[in-house]
Write a structure and sequence with these properties.
295 residues; Rossmann fold; 7-stranded parallel β-sheet; two-stranded parallel sheet
Length: 295
């Protein structure tokens, strides 16, 4: 198989590439970094270099500037939006000029699509509440859906907080625990819809394999937890001496608007569509995920 991937050098993309390399597939990777080709990976920095007669079995779109990469100035918010909607728009344009479009486009989105909804459990049919993250994800998904006009099957992957030992959110979330400090942010009542990275990769492969599947898919573990609940499970795996929650006003001062959008509020998201499609999670509970991550 030959796949085209954007964001292939990121936290999720690098693990996906390793899986495909092991399986013997060829991958073309769009990246901002100049990288030398390997036996199975061809790196490009511009989709324009792909000829009209190129053939890809499927496209996986993971590109996007980190939401936590910098304080949310007006300029950085534009970068967050453009890196997602702009790349997705360019991908769809590519699919439109290919003589043989790929069978599927799996395009990243996020559970921020739903906005802030307190304790309500949210399947894929949940109605969104407006906000920056919600509008970002909606625009991102709308761009991806345009690929359907070329006969391409589109899956919109709404990722939760992806956890694993060697990168992503876990590095920051575990930092105080490594120093013996158990904590949560704000009230601790906000929901954290998480997923182990191995389950993200397994879900991507599942959506590629099952050609009857399309639409929106929450890529989150079946059992979300609150911020306090996350702290309690973390204490089983890290030796802590004190519990010191970080007050909401402190978070607002430290990181500004990002605190309200990503840290002090959350979504209680469940993977209804994946479960109904027969997908089984390797790590359905936070305890099982952290046992694997910290072993």
């Amino acid at each position: 198989m030959h796949y085209l991937v954007t964001g292939g050098t990121g936290f999720i993309g690098s693990a996906l590439l390793a899986t495909w390399h092991e399986a013997g597939h060829q991958v073309t990777v769009l990246t901002r970094q100049a990288k030398a080709d390997t036996r199975r990976c061809h790196y490009i920095q511009d989709l324009g270099v792909i000829p009209d007669d190129a053939h890809f079995d499927a496209v996986v779109n993971l590109a996007g500037a980190s939401l936590a990469g910098a304080r949310w100035s007006a300029a950085y918010k534009r970068e967050i939006v453009d890196s997602r909607t702009g790349t997705t728009h360019a991908l769809v344009e590519l699919l439109g000029r290919l003589k043989q479009p790929p069978e599927a486009l799996l395009s990243a989105s996020a559970i921020g699509y739903y906005g802030h909804q307190a304790d309500q459990a949210l399947g894929e049919e949940g109605s969104p509440v407006p906000g920056f993250s919600q509008q970002l994800c909606q625009r991102w998904e709308e761009e991806a859906l345009l690929a359907q006009q070329f006969g391409v099957r589109v899956c919109r992957m709404r990722f939760g907080v992806v956890l694993d030992r060697d990168g992503g959110a876990m590095q920051e979330m575990a930092r105080p625990f490594r120093f013996g400090v158990a904590n949560w942010l704000g009230s601790g009542k906000q929901w954290l819809s998480w997923v182990h990275r191995d389950d993200v990769i397994a879900a991507i492969l599942y959506l590629l394999e099952h050609r009857e599947l399309s639409g929106a898919f929450n890529i989150t573990a079946p059992e979300p937890v609150t911020s306090r609940g996350f702290c309690q499970v973390m204490k089983h795996y890290y030796r802590t001496f004190i519990t010191a929650p970080v007050p909401a006003p402190v978070m607002r001062v430290l990181v500004g608007e990002m605190a309200e959008e990503l840290l002090l509020n959350g979504q209680r998201v469940v993977p209804t569509a994946l479960s109904n499609a027969g997908f089984e999670f390797l790590y359905p509970t936070l305890d099982s995920a952290l046992a694997a991550i910290t072993r």
